[in-house]
Design brief:
alpha+beta; 7 helices
Amino acid sequence: MCWIWDRVNTHSVWRLHWAPRLAASRNSCSPCGGLNNPAPDRRLHWTPRLTTSRKLSVSAFWEECKPTPPFLCIKGKKEAGRMKTKGEKKEQIREQIVEASRVYRDKLAGKVFLYVVGGEWFEVVFQTNCFMHLTGVSSQLSAQDFYEKAKAARLTTEQISFDEKHSYQGAKKKLPCLLVLPELTNSLVCVVKSMRTLTLTYTIGLTNLHFTVGLTENIDSYGNKRNDWFLPRTLRVRDKAIEASRDAEFVDFIFSKDASHDTYDKLEFAEKERILPENLRPLLSQRLAEALF
């Protein structure tokens, strides 16, 4: 695997009092097609180091941010006097998967997101065949078939299963987060590097303190890199992603575009007082570039 490192200038010092705004940004959630468009070949503008001043203090970060996210307070329908049967629990999981697939379709699939951190950036694509891996369930269906059936509300409880790696409790925790996954594309998030888990180290992760998406490079079955896009491979809830990573930084800007377009034409998020790197201009539409530079 070949990485091309670019020399960049770091911008001003990260300030810990931004942390509460990360949690405060978690009040909106909006409901979410396939991606067959080839990505443009671009160099990964991602440096392998951080200065000490840019590295987050994990203890201070968590100390200042202790709100309870609204989506973790979501409760299922209460039926007094009895416990839900296994069938009823599975049906509730199925309904959440169907709802989450529509959020994924409407807000994420078919788009490319550009994350800018200082003078560095990377691109993320939420391909439709990644959806099943984020739900926390197992299935005999292929990942693409699972998504298509969920999107059309034709997914059945028989096509959903649980095992040692995909537990019911795990799916129950992940699905409320999957319903608000677009928040990682339009609000203040933290970018973590070399995020370690028990089974894998993810190149990059995106976290808002309450849940984290681990990203990997887009490679084929032979390990060959298809393009410079990063893909979501895991969704983790309250996993202390910052402590498990080599470095962590707040994002400065997030842009989006249709996957069929050459340039980014929408600004999803911008941190105040941040300066956009001049070498990003060619990646933006003329209209957006004129407005930002």
